[in-house]
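The protein record filed here.
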Amino acid sequence: FKGAKMRFSIVIVLGVLILSNLMGRGTSHVHRSYDFDEDSRLETLVLNTNEFSAGWIEMQSSGIYETLWSFNLQEGGLFADGELIDINNDSIKDIVLIPDLFSSFGEQNLIYIFLGNNIGFTSQPITIKDLILDYTTIRPSNLALISGSTPQLAVSIGSPVRKGLLFDIKINDNNRASIENKRVLSSPIISNGYGAVYIGSFMVDTKDYIAILSPENYQLKTSIFDISEEYKLIDSQSFNLKNSKNLLGADIQSYKSKKSDTSGLLIPFESDEVFLLSVKNNKAH
């Protein structure tokens, strides 16, 4: 479990340029960058600004941006996290978002899906209200793509249970969405705690893993699951965070160096530290 200052600096710089102009509300987030239209201008998903709850932004030059698409939740609602993934198998990326929920969700949507098309994303979402787990309250923390696997998506649940949920989304011919292939991951070190819960997927060498994380009192509780071994729990440990504060769950992402064999899961903190979680001999380090 090593401190790092890696490619994350690119995302941080991009985020500073965008949010300094847009101004954030609540917990703002700048997703990793893309260039889907191949015009050499980076595009990215931005959440929770004063202008919108979610927006697709293209950087034109230093500090200048264009909003290509945006969406606002009612009553100033916030999104907790989002990912880009091809849900309906049309070779175009779609946006999947989870809202920031802090109480019983009742009639609230749990998942928002904006299908991609040749000109951007749909203006109105396809939503899912179905119970992800059998509880009337739920607090999702972050959303992640799962490398090399079906199910393809993972969400961390911090309340009322402390687990990870893996799932797929199916869109039918009537543009209705449903959750399929649900799988729940849990471990004693995560279940017995009080800190926020996060999830991430990463590859080391040729093996794919899922990590569930929970920061508590300057410790990071960590459980690693081996995807190729039917999501077997292979290791649980607590790591010393020293003075690192406020894990940025929406910014957790997989990492693979282009210059060495270094790979793992990047775990960033608001206090500017970025740690790399990896696996060696079935042990987290």
Summary: The helical segments are 8-22, 188-191. The two ends are 4 Å apart (CA to CA).
